[in-house]
C-alpha cells in the first residue's frame, strides 16, 4: 500500500503484542524468535553451571534444573536484544523527547546526589562510632562514585568533542 | 516558556491525545508543554511548527 504523504510503498505488518525483530525480516515476532537462542543459552549455561551443584545429584538432572530456572531469563534477555522497540504497542517514536525521559534523567541526578550524601553521612557516623572497617568501606565507595562521575563526565565531554 | 499551543490545538479541534500521536510523544508531554512546565527539544519544536503549519516563534514566546 502507498503512504499518502510520501507516496512511498509501505508494508503492512500485523501488530504483535511483544513486537517484531529489529534485524532481517521485520515481520518476525520477537518473542517467538527469542525462544530458540534463549533455550540454547539456558541449556549451555545449565551444562556449565552443573559443575557447581552438589555431587550427589546426577549431572543431567543438575543441568536440567539450572536450564529450566534460567530459561525465562535467557529468553527475556534475547527478546530485549532482538525486539525493535518501535514495534511495541504503546511506544512513542520519539520517546527520548517525552517529559517522562526528562523526569527520569532528573530522578537519576537527584538519586546520585542523595546517595553521595548518605554514604558520606554513613562514613562520618561510622568514624565517630569507632567502626573503622565500615568507615573505610564507605570511603572506598565514595571515592569510587566520584571517580565514576569524573570518568563519565570525561566520556560525555570527549564523545561530543569535534 | 509561554506558548499558544493549547489555543492553536483547540482551534483545529484536536485533543491532546491526537496531537501527541501526530508528534510521536506522550500525552503528558503535550500537557506539560501547554502548561509551560516543559520546553520541547529543538526537533520536537520543529515538528510542532510543521504540524501546525506555522513557525516556532509563532507558537512559543519567551
TrEMBL record, chain B:
Gene3D superfamilies: lambda repressor-like DNA-binding domains. SUPFAM superfamilies: lambda repressor-like DNA-binding domains (SSF47413). Residues 5-59 form the HTH cro/C1-type domain. It holds the Pfam family HTH_3. Keywords: DNA-binding. It comes from the Bacteria. GO terms for molecular function: DNA binding. SMART domains: HTH_XRE. This is XRE family transcriptional regulator. It comes from Bifidobacterium mellis.
Amino acid at each position: 500500500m502507498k503512504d499518502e504523504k510520501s507516496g512511498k510503498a509501505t508494508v503492512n505488518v500485523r501488530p504483535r503484542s511483544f513486537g517484531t525483530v529489529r534485524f532481517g525480516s521485520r515481520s518476525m515476532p520477537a518473542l517467538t524468535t527469542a525462544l530458540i537462542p534463549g533455550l540454547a543459552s539456558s541449556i549451555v549455561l545449565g551444562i556449565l553451571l552443573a559443575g557447581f551443584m552438589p555431587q550427589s545429584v546426577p549431572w543431567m538432572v543438575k543441568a536440567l534444573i539450572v536450564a529450566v530456572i534460567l530459561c525465562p531469563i535467557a529468553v527475556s534477555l534475547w527478546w530485549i536484544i532482538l525486539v525493535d522497540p518501535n514495534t511495541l504497542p504503546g511506544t512513542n517514536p520519539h520517546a527520548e523527547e517525552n517529559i517522562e525521559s526528562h523526569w527520569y534523567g532528573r530522578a537519576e541526578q537527584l538519586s546520585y546526589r542523595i546517595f553521595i550524601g548518605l554514604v558520606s553521612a554513613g562514613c562520618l557516623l561510622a568514624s565517630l562510632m569507632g567502626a573503622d572497617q565500615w568507615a573505610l568501606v564507605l570511603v572506598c565507595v565514595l571515592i569510587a562514585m566520584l571517580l565514576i562521575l569524573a570518568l563519565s563526565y570525561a566520556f560525555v565531554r570527549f564523545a561530543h568533542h569535534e | 516558556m509561554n506558548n499558544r499551543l493549547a489555543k492553536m490545538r483547540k482551534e483545529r479541534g484536536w485533543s491532546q491525545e491526537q496531537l501527541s500521536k501526530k508528534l510521536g510523544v506522550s500525552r503528558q508531554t503535550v500537557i506539560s508543554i501547554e502548561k509551560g512546565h516543559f520546553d520541547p527539544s529543538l526537533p520536537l519544536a520543529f515538528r510542532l511548527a510543521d504540524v501546525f503549519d506555522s513557525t516556532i516563534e509563532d507558537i512559543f514566546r519567551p
